[in-house]
Specification:
Layout lengths: L9 H9 L50 E2 L7 E2 L6 E6 H7 L4 H5 L5 E5 L7 E5 L4 H4 L4 E5 L2 E2 L18 E8 L3 H4 L6 E7 L7 E9 L3 E12 L2 E12 L8 E14 L3 E15 L6 H7 L12 E18 L2 E19 L3 E21 L7 E22 L4 E25 L2 E18 L4 E21 L2 E12 L7 E2 L2 E2 L6 E13 L3 E19 L9 E22 L2 E16 L16 E10 L4 E10 L18 E10 L2 E2 L3 E10 L7 E11 L4 E10 L4 E11 L1
Parallel strand pairs: 6-9
Antiparallel strand pairs: 1-2, 3-8, 4-5, 6-7, 8-9, 10-11, 10-36, 11-12, 12-13, 13-14, 14-15, 15-16, 16-17, 17-18, 18-19, 19-20, 20-21, 21-22, 22-25, 23-24, 25-26, 26-27, 27-28, 28-29, 29-30, 30-31, 31-33, 32-33, 33-36, 34-35
């Protein structure tokens, strides 16, 4: 859809630009209390607890990306500058002012984070960090937590990002690099910890609506508040879109309920329950010739019946007990259940699946913050237990030879481990961090149709050590060493035709150095990392005579790179930010299929972001964001035989007006334009086996998932507070 600016608006726009230096009224800080977590009081907009206060009334205010408190790395509470690692914290203000349509759209702007989408709807997102794209995406090495609950799916360890609504998110912590010493499985590439909005503070009600391209609309409702020791909140979301491409429809409705209690001055209890139900369609791939003839928005011929349906429920709770002023016990427990049904195929085959998954988890930790011989010390010790069950029925239908291949798999995984982490201040400005974790992963399963059975276990140690030097009040420099791992998931254990050959757990060793700068004017991160991975689990079509992706181990893969990000606010009315990521991921040894020297598919060496936000008079704001992604091998081009996918850049823009009307009412009106330059690009491409009538045989050919052209959405918001 074409978007143009009427000439009549140009004079008004110029007047607003001339008025920009006028200091905009900063919004009143959220009255949300953090009674459930006293140590997080320092996570307010002022920055790091150790940072000095602003230099005076004329000094620029603090950047809105706060230093905050970091909990995902050490599982304790420590300021960002005192925690080794490349860490970013996004607060609710950052989320609202981003113009992003969903959580993953926001995360793709961050250094070290790589996002793809193969369906143009929220169901097609895949997110990884530090080059762990796993060939054809067989499993995830990035752990995702929502309110402390692991949301990586039991069957493939990926995250269903469609279930995480951006309007429900209060805070996001991004920790890059292996965090296995604290969190165990799936955290080899990093951790993304998401905190949802709660009922802390005065009662409030918020309603949001969204309308946009492709017959998209959505609405969210949030209500919450606290009274005495009780706090409660509810969130509802309805989202619908026909999608950019034909047969890419998406529908979801979901709800979340939270209750919290302060049990005197010594303990808190937080309970949460949620449900969701969604349906999406998969438009498939197109060749260049099909895009020219049918159009970029067309669906792949023969994919009329491709769909997925999912229904999920979850219950979780957290208990905190303050045993003393400097001693805290915390337990988080949860239960998830989910059912997925779907069909995927084309004119030659169809693959139907019906799976049910359950997960029960318990995390326990004791945190002690007491000095040793006059030196500050923070100790965290605990243990975790996770039980997962997957029951999956599949049917592979060969539509050419009219044959069926059914499969049934029943798998249970139990993972339990213990960890200890310690941060000791050798000097006032020099912190030694060390920790170790030991995990055992037991698997039992069978496929009664093929007669295959599974009964094995894996174990892994994950030590980590780091030094952090507070060189200046606003600067810290760190160096770290860590070992990480990832256990095979269920999909890597059973493929289309039953139990696969034994796949070993992958192990890694990482060295990292970096620097972080934080003050009221700027926020910057710089990190260099080098990681060697042994037995990296890889979906390799060359490992099977049928050329279907088969999970196997690569002997050694090298991951190395650079991550740079920064945000600066030179004046009250402007905020500039940018990031750059260099990921060099190469197969160094492969005794099975001899892929030495090849790049891991779908991992770009270069990508980056640049953007600006402007805060004008009358509570107005404007922003622009540009994403660049360099060339990368096709999804399953493990031999790097084809020319890589073309690089692309996409520019988005947004305008907003968020007036505070009196003490109790806040409004919001926002207009966003995505891909404003109408760039034609393909974020994802894959190789397909097609029949060649010249050779009378199957050959590999390039296929693409076209990405959206220019599109827009319009949003409104009403918030009422007592």
């Amino acid at each position: 859809m074409e978007v143009s600016i009427p000439r009549q608006l140009v004079p008004a726009a110029l007047l607003c630009l001339l008025a920009l230096p006028v200091h905009a009224q900063d919004p009143e800080p959220d009255a949300t209390s953090r009674a459930a977590d006293p140590a997080s009081d320092s996570a307010t907009a002022g920055g790091d607890p150790a940072d000095p206060p602003p230099g005076g009334p004329d000094a620029p205010p603090a950047v809105k990306r706060n230093v905050g408190e970091v909990i995902a790395t050490t599982r304790g509470e420590r300021g960002n500058l005192e925690t080794p690692g490349n860490i970013t914290v996004l607060e609710r203000t950052d989320i609202e002012e981003s113009g992003a349509r969903d959580v993953v759209d926001l995360l793709r702007r961050e250094a070290g984070v790589f996002v793809t989408n193969d369906s143009t709807n929220r169901k097609g997102y895949r997110l990884e960090m530090r080059g762990f794209n796993n060939g054809s995406g067989g499993g995830s090495s990035t752990l995702v937590l929502v309110d402390g609950r692991r949301v990586n799916e039991p069957n493939n360890a990926n995250t269903d990002w469609a279930l995480i609504a951006i309007d429900e998110v209060e805070r996001i912590e991004i920790v890059r690099g292996p965090v296995n010493a604290a969190w165990g499985d799936n955290s080899q590439a990093g951790v993304i910890s998401i905190t949802t909005r709660s009922g802390d503070g005065p009662p409030r009600f918020e309603a949001r609506g969204r309308w946009g391209s492709y017959d998209s609309y959505g609405t969210t409702l949030f209500a919450g508040g606290s009274h005495g020791p009780l706090r409660a909140s509810a969130f509802f979301n309805l989202d619908k879109s026909d999608g950019y491409r034909e047969r890419s429809d998406f529908r979801i409705h979901q709800g979340t309920f939270k209750l919290g209690f302060d049990l005197g001055n010594r303990a808190t209890l937080d309970l949460k329950g949620g449900y969701s139900s969604d349906r999406s369609e998969s438009p498939g791939v197109l060749s260049y010739e099909q895009m020219a003839f049918l159009g970029r928005r067309a669906a792949q011929p023969g994919t009329d019946d491709n769909f997925t349906k999912a229904r999920a429920h979850n219950v979780d709770g957290t208990v905190r007990v303050f045993l003393a002023e400097d001693v805290t016990w915390k337990t988080t427990a949860w239960y998830d259940s989910r059912r997925d049904r779907g069909s995927l195929g084309n004119e030659f085959f169809a693959f139907d699946s019906d799976s049910e998954t359950q997960a029960v988890g318990v995390n326990n930790q004791l945190e002690v913050r007491r000095p040793i011989l006059g030196h500050a010390n923070q100790l965290v010790v605990g243990g975790d237990w996770l039980w997962e069950k997957v029951a999956r029925d599949t049917l592979f239908r060969d539509l050419v030879f009219l044959s069926d291949s059914p499969s049934k798999s029943r798998v249970e995984r139990t993972t339990y481990g213990a960890f200890i982490q310690d941060d000791f201040s050798i000097l006032e400005n020099l912190i030694l961090s060390a920790g170790v974790r030991y995990d055992v992963n037991e698997r039992e399963g069978d496929d009664p149709l093929s007669g295959t059975e599974l009964d094995d276990d894996n174990s892994a140690w994950a030590p980590r050590a780091a030094l952090t030097w507070r060189a200046l009040e606003s600067l810290s420099i760190y160096g770290s060493w860590a070992r990480g791992y990832r256990f095979p998931n269920v999909n890597e254990t059973f493929d289309f035709f039953g139990l696969t050959p034994a796949v070993e757990a992958e192990k890694s060793e990482t060295w990292e150095v970096g620097a972080k700068w934080r003050n009221q004017w700027a926020d910057a991160n710089l990190a260099f990392y080098h990681m060697n991975v042994r037995n990296e689990i890889f979906a390799n079509p060359l490992a099977s005579p049928s050329l279907l992706p088969t999970n196997s181990n690569l002997d050694r893969v090298r991951h190395r790179g650079v991550e740079i990000s920064g945000i600066v606010r030179p004046a009250a009315w402007v905020e500039l930010y940018g990031s750059y990521t260099y990921d060099d991921v190469e197969i160094r040894r492969d005794s099975l299929t001899m892929l030495e020297g090849n790049r891991i598919p779908m991992v770009p060496r270069h990508r980056g972001t640049a953007g600006a936000r402007f805060f004008g008079p009358c509570d107005t704001e404007a922003g622009m964001n540009a994403n660049f992604v360099g060339e990368r091998p096709f999804l399953n081009d493990v031999g790097n035989r084809f020319e890589p996918l073309d690089p692309f850049q996409v520019v988005d823009a947004h305008l907003a007006w968020r007036p505070q009307i009196g003490e109790h009412l806040r409004l919001g009106v926002e207009f966003n334009v995505y891909n404003i330059l109408d760039t034609e690009y393909e974020e994802v491409g894959a190789l397909a086996s097609v029949f060649d009538f010249d050779t009378f045989g199957f050959v590999q050919a390039e296929r693409f998932y076209p990405s959206p052209n220019r599109n827009y959405d319009f949003r409104i918001m009403v918030e009422i507070r007592r």
